[in-house]
Every structure is written in structure tokens, then in C-alpha cells.
Specification:
Layout (H helix, E strand, L loop, with lengths): L3 H6 L4 E6 L4 H9 L4 E5 L7 H13 L3 E5 L5 H9 L4 E4 L5 H11 L21 H11 L1 E6 L2 H5 L1 H5 L6 E4 L1 H7 L9 H17 L4 E4 L4 H9 L4 E6 H15 L5
Parallel strand pairs: 1-2, 1-8, 2-3, 3-4, 4-5, 5-6, 7-8
Helix pairs in contact: 2-3, 4-5
């Protein structure tokens, strides 16, 4: 398993993907395929907390870093997925430094944050608390999702918030916040991404992007632009695209 925090700090390339389906075999297959980290999406899926803990276990035991994209910047929910054993969270709609500080505080114990202390899976069910406390301070991951034009406008403050390890563009919501959901070639969307890239590079912060479609050409495109924290694809798109490819090759109309 890679040290994701160090990888982000050193701005080295790392590749992950997205899980929206709750079956543990899917997580295991994707981890064994070589993705270095996998994000369990609890914002846009029906995955429950109990299912998320099962997926976290499978991902971790398979050698990948388990992250959770939480449903909102909510301290109680973040606390619960961290107690379930997530190595970190991706927090949606972080649009200000205050939002970023709130996310960090929800992950970290005092004095770095305000997370309540429980004795769940992450803490070895009460038998490994001291080790976990040190790990949490040194290794836990906070990724802020940049997916609104307001976040672009406050980007320097967000990215320099203590405890923020990285950021990732949510392309659909960012384009939607400009009034053009999914229209990535719009001048306004391109300008917002350019601003993101300029600020990240000036601050020497890793640039992140979720390439929703599993497209290797787009992956190479974003790597050439300097993005180092990249998620590619979603479990259901990998399944659906391969099914459609085979059906089309058989000459059957979908």
C-alpha cells in the first residue's frame, strides 16, 4: 500500500478510481487491478455506512488506500466513516477556507481538530487507540473537492488551509455551477480549470481530477497538464462500457 499522504506531499503521480456499487467483490477486483486508492462514493450512491465499512476492509486488505467521498461536509458523518477505518475523506462542495477548516476538524482529534473519540474498527475496537491516534495525526488524508465557481474564487485560501492534503476537481458540478452542466468545452469552464491549474502550480500543490469516463487518452491528457492525483472511471461505467462494446461487436442494437 502506498503512503498516499507522502505521495501527495511530494506531488507524485497516483491513480485511483471510484466505487458506487456496494458489492465487496467489485472493490476487490478493482484493488487487485492495481489502483493505488479507491473512493467509496457515499454522496451519489445508495451505499450505507455498514456497506462502506465492508468495502473499506476489502480495499485495505487488497493493498489499496480506502477513501470515502462523504455525502456532505458534516462532522458526524465524517467521524463515522473515519471510525469505520477510512484512511481519509473526499469532501464535496468545499467553497471557502472555513469549509476546508471544518472538514479537517471533523477528521482530526484535538488539538488539531474537534472529532469526538470513539472505539470502533479504526481504533482496533478499543485495543489499538494509541497507535491510531498517532496514525491519524500523521497519515490521515483530507481531500477537498473543487466543484463550484465559488471554490475557484477562494482557491488560494482553501488550498493553504492547514490539514488539507490535496484537492480534486468535480468536473460535472463545476461546469454546472457555471450554468453548463457537462459542457466541458465551454469557455467559462475552461477558464475555471485554467485558474485552478495556475493556482495549484504557483502554490506547488497537487492537482486532482476525476475523469469520469474510463478513457486512457483523457488520462494521458491530464497527466501531460500536470495533474498527479487522478481518479479514472466509476465501477458501473467499466462494467457498462465493456458490455456495450461486446454487444456492439456482436451486431446487436442496445
Amino acid at each position: 500500500m502506498i503512503n498516499l499522504k507522502q505521495t501527495l506531499r511530494e506531488n507524485n503521480f497516483t491513480l485511483g478510481s471510484w466505487i458506487n456499487l456496494a458489492h465487496s467483490s467489485i472493490a476487490e477486483i478493482m484493488a487487485q487491478a492495481g489502483f493505488e486508492w479507491l473512493t467509496i462514493d457515499m454522496e451519489h450512491s445508495t451505499i450505507t455506512l455498514a456497506e462502506a465499512q465492508n468495502l473499506i476492509q476489502v480495499i485495505g486488505h487488497s493493498g489499496a488506500v480506502p477513501l470515502v467521498r462523504v455525502e456532505e461536509n458534516n462532522a458526524t458523518f465524517i467521524k463515522r466513516v473515519m471510525d469505520a477505518g477510512a484512511h481519509g475523506v473526499i469532501v464535496p462542495m468545499v467553497n471557502s477556507a472555513d469549509d476546508a477548516r471544518k472538514a479537517v476538524s471533523a477528521v482530526k482529534y484535538p488539538p488539531e481538530g474537534q472529532r469526538g473519540v470513539g472505539l470502533g474498527r479504526a481504533q482496533g475496537y478499543g485495543f489499538d487507540f494509541e497507535r491510531y491516534k498517532n496514525w491519524l495525526s500523521e497519515e490521515s488524508i483530507v481531500i477537498v473537492q473543487i466543484e463550484h465557481i465559488r471554490a475557484i474564487e477562494h482557491l488560494e485560501d482553501i488550498l493553504t488551509t492547514q490539514g488539507v492534503d490535496g484537492s480534486i476537481i468535480g468536473p460535472y458540478d463545476l461546469s454546472g455551477s457555471l450554468g453548463y452542466p457537462g459542457e466541458f468545452e465551454r469557455e467559462e469552464v475552461i477558464a475555471a480549470l485554467k485558474r485552478y491549474e495556475e493556482v495549484c502550480k504557483s502554490l506547488k500543490k497537487p492537482m486532482g481530477f476525476h475523469i469520469v469516463q474510463p478513457d486512457s487518452k483523457k488520462l494521458e491528457h491530464y497527466r501531460r497538464k500536470g495533474y498527479t492525483f487522478i481518479a479514472i472511471g466509476v465501477d458501473f461505467l467499466y462494467l457498462g462500457e465493456k458490455c456495450r462494446e461486446i454487444v456492439a461487436q456482436a451486431g446487436i442494437d442496445a
